[in-house]
Amino acid sequence: MMEIVFQRPKALSDVSSHYCPGCTHGIIHRLVAEVLDELDLTGKTVGVAPVGCAVLAYNYFECDMAQAAHGRAPAVATGLKRANPANIVFTYQGDGDLAAIGTAETIHAAARGENITIIFVNNAIYGMTGGQMAPTTIPGQITQTSPYGRDPKYAGFPLKICETLSTVDGTAYAERVSVDSVKNVINAKKAIKKAFEYQMAGKGFTIVEVLSTCSTNWGLEPVEALTWLRENLIPYYPLGVYKDKEVF
Amino acid sequence: MAEKVLMKGNEAIAEAAIMAGCRHFFGYPITPQTEVAAYMAKRMPKIGGTYLQAESEIAAINMVYGASSAGVRAMTSSSSPGISLKSEGLSYMAGSDLPAVLVNIQRGGPGLGGIRPSQSDYFQATRSSGHGDFHMIVLAPNTVQEMFDLTVEAFELADRYRMTTMILGDGMLGQVMEPVDISRGEAASTVTKDWALTGTKGQRKRNIINSLYLEAEELEMLNLKRFEKYADVEKIARTDNYLTEDAEVIIVAYGICARIARNAINEARQRGIKAGLIRPVTLWPFPKNQLKAAVEKAKAFVVVEMSMGQMIQDVELSIRCSRPVHLCSRTGGMVPTPESVLEAIENAAQAERS
Asked: Does residue A197 register a pLDDT over 90?
């Protein structure tokens, strides 16, 4: 008798995704789906897709899904959660969506202690539109709209979302993780699971920021992109728990 | 006889929404609609509902998008500058076929404009509420009682057609106090929302609320289908007519301007001019057939509105410019006087005689 040791999570749709080869969105989708399976949440969950690379996320999760206007996912999630508080509601957003156009919606959802979970995928670039400077593009990083490298004197500084949200009283849990290595992927899943568990317990606003790659727009091979993330993004955006209202 | 309650127009809207089964209100303060939000903030917690003050009008309309996606009756209210901010959300709601009720208590513009009553958002309400091909149903009350009645109806229409329905009022209607019979409120409709995002409970395939269609053929097909629905909505177009049977000069006015016009019509009749009023109750769909029918007797039309002339275009289109159409208007928060409307009637009548 053969034992199945690895298969597609039930919460993940059996379709090919549109993500570029080497993109880490696939890993993050899988982690969310595994958590939905393990906590038996798919039937009561509503997800909100952003505008950006993950816009088609509504095709990839088996739970009910809404697609939100650019940056408005936390407001849409707020409406969904307030209408049906028994549902589990999560958003899946990129850095342009969450940290530029949707900054107000993000911070105020946190301030209200809205009982939702945000999966924030930070790859320091606008992927879908072809690689422009993001609010999280690090100093010196070359993009289509910072072709000489981001100069903070001219283009300003990146936003550090977990650090910012850790100062907001309504935030129950904020952790930054990465998917650049097996060890970090395992930690990322733990964080995502904890965020959903906090929501189930009604603890308030939870966010997991996941440092992610964009091989295509960074102009790097997938493996090089993982190295670049490790050597450049993690030092600027240190991993760790920034807020856990059960602990500090 | 039903007991009447003295209410502000804005309060009547809020109470009507509650009686229509709305338990989710998302707002942001702006004069002169603030009483809608204040009333909701007071009442909702007592009846297990949600009043939520959003961080912006943009957030408020997107909260409505979320709540409506979840299948509940949801609404937001604002005034002119705030409605501009809601445009994005309105377009997404139309593209996702979500029902909702939106209130615009208009103030003078453009820009920050002023806080006095206006009707200068007519184009915005009926033509260009956001990007893309879409319409909202637009209802125009002219009394506090109608603020109440049309709000109840707005929820029914929104659910029936899966459209945003707008109550288009103005600062005067919002602020004026009049007796209202609130026993006319209906129980929540029983429209089944099998499309709503309530969780699959493992019993059905997932539902998706979305307005993205990357295949142009598919998007065109959906737009065509939506406009077939809009053609069906045309049947709800209606007017409230006053002394039109024999009228040679027809005033066309909605909202508070219609009430001012009635005074002028009474005076004109005493002076021997057969004047009458067609008051569009629905601004979208515009009651073009009712206007067309009036052409038989009418020699001239006078449009009274608090803008530089917006609804006048719909009047001209409806009658195919087959009669002279005059404009009597004030703008920027100014309200026409009955005297100015009377003068416009007399001038129109004079022009036909000469």
From this structure: yes
Given the structure tokens 């009597």, which residue do they identify? Answer: B328
Is there a contact between A51 and A68 (Cβ–Cβ < 8 Å)? yes
Rounded to an integer, what distance in angstroms lies between the CA atom of residue B325 and that of residue B198? 51
Residue of B nearest to A59 (CA): B208
Contact B66 A78 (CB under 8 A): yes
Q: What is the mean pLDDT of residues A211-226?
A: 97
The mean per-residue pLDDT over the stretch A92-121 comes to 98
- CB of A67 within 8 Å of a chain B CB? The answer is yes
Shortest CA gap A234–chain B (Å): 32
- From CA B159, how far away is CA B60, in angstroms rounded? 19
The secondary structure element, H or E, covering residue B52 is: strand B50-53
ipTM score here?
0.97
Q: How far is CA B339 from CA B249, B268, B336, in A?
A: 16, 10, 8
> DSSP states of B191-203 as a string?
---TTS-S--TTT
Element (H, E) at A206: strand A205-211
Determine, for residues B208 and A66 on separate chains, whether the beta-carbon distance falls below 8 Å. yes
**Cα B221 to Cα B219: distance, rounded to the nearest angstrom:** 5
Q: Are A130 and A74 in contact (CB under 8 A)?
A: no
Domains and CATH numbers, chain A: 25-244 (3.40.50.970)
pLDDT at B68 over 60: yes
CB atoms within 10 A of CB B87: 17
What pTM was computed for the model?
0.97
CB-nearest partner of B209 from A55, A59, A67: A67
Longest dimension (CA), chain B: 76
Q: Average pLDDT, stretch A54-63?
A: 98
pLDDT 10s digits, B205-232: 999 999 999 999 999 999 999 999 999 9
Q: Worst-scoring range by mean pLDDT, A114-128, B174-188, B235-249?
A: B174-188
User: Using the beta-carbon criterion (under 8 Å), do A64 and B74 form an inter-chain contact?
Assistant: no
Q: How would residue A186 be classed by pLDDT, with cut points 50, 70 and 90?
A: very high
Give the C-alpha separation, A42 to B3, whole Å.
Answer: 50
What angle do the packed helices B80-95 and B57-69 form, to 10 degrees?
30
Over residues B295-320, mean pLDDT = 97
Q: What are phi and psi of A206, to 5 degrees?
A: -130, 140
Q: What is the number of residues in chain A?
A: 248
| Domains delineated in chain B | 4-235 (3.40.50.970), 241-353 (3.40.50.920)
Percentage of chain B beyond pLDDT 70 is 98
